[in-house]
Amino acid sequence: MQISEIITSNIFHKNNIKCNFTPTPQSKITCEFSANCINSIVNIIITVYIYCNVGSKHELVESKPKYLSISSSNKHYNVSFEIPDFSGNYESFILIRLNPAEEIEKVVNIQNLRISRMESMKYNEDEDISNIIYDENNIISLYPFVVKESGYGILVDNISDNLPKCGYTVIDMGTDGFTTNSTNISLFITLPTSFFKTSSKFNIGYTMFEATKIPPIWINYCNTMDRLFVPCNANIKAFRASGVTVPIDVIPIGIDTKLYNPELYEPTYDFGMPQFEKAYKFFIFNDGQPRKNNQMVFKAFSEEFYREIAANEVCLVLRQHTPHTERNIIYIKEYLEDNKLASLIRSCDSMISASSGEAGDIPILTGMSMGKPVIVTKEFVHPDYVEDNKTGYFIDTESIVPAYTQPEYKDNIGIIKGAEWICPSLTSLKEKMRYVYENRDEAEKVGCNARKFIVENRDNIVCISKMVEVFEKLTGAKHE
User: What pTM, to 2 d.p., does this model score?
Assistant: First the structure.
């Protein structure tokens, strides 16, 4: 691709900015820029273009994309790139662009792009890479347009860590900057507005949604893919009902059941509140958005257990970003590494998800892997891995209501005509919380059943194997 083609192509936009520079061979550059997000989460794609001046031609020899997602105002970013070895008269520029392009003007402004540092990189000259042969059937180009601490981010980590165990090389297009026309499969893990066609033979998008219909803007993006992966059966119905026509496969989200193994941890997490040391502990782990219905859980807890609360015999452990002042609620704000999270779950007695809609619910999968009884709503993803009174407890549904109507979702989601989710029953939630509290031995057996099911059906390798089956079907290549 010549530089003149790049300049005239649609990657440029009046709100895009670029910064020219002269690269140094085997160097690392750091660029800085500011971004102000107004209405939504949006992906910023930072690409370093290196092109060579050969006479009157400007040939693009390498591009290195980086991806960020922003969701709040006045953010300043530093992004680093490695520049390969080269010879000749080279120039370069950094281009900042945004996804989705249709919403660029109302969503975000970017400014103040500059090169802040260029430094030499040292390479191992003794390393012989001449013998490396890439089989296009073994390479997956991964496009992870995600926030790392989100469900998508966990999914990306699972895939990156476990596909190589199944014989694949995963090229992370967000960090490796590897560009090739020889990969058979490009896998996008993100919101559909970041999907685009690559030169790969098969372009697959892995995405999800928590209501009975998806945002209308997603439909065309989904249909540009050759195939979709979704984490639950309910998502197939939602995407089909919205007008998505490409093939869809259910690839469940997996859990590292070896890491989240209750036998590895003692119930010794320090809550910093000795008065609750012997109390029964319900655990909620989510981001506190309205869909999660935490306020309903607080109401059920305070109304059903007011006597036990007065005696400090029960408490509610809450891991989310917004503190609460209700009595007998232990609020945990700190980020928890895997081992500390496992210790926390091991130190609690049961977990609750009263969400109006879930496509994966990784915290509940994690709790089940840790052998805890879970109390969950009975629609969307939960029936895929919870059997009532055997591997968990279902909260009855009070009603079906329009989805994403709360003011908090107005800017990010907008109105999705016909989209619905559930309103769980407060009475049923109280009953299930009381039941596990009063019947601890039985609930413990349910937790053990849950652990067994997750190990057999939702371990990372089990879920990745389902993905591999699709890849093999598409490419005709078998992997051991």
Answer: 0.74
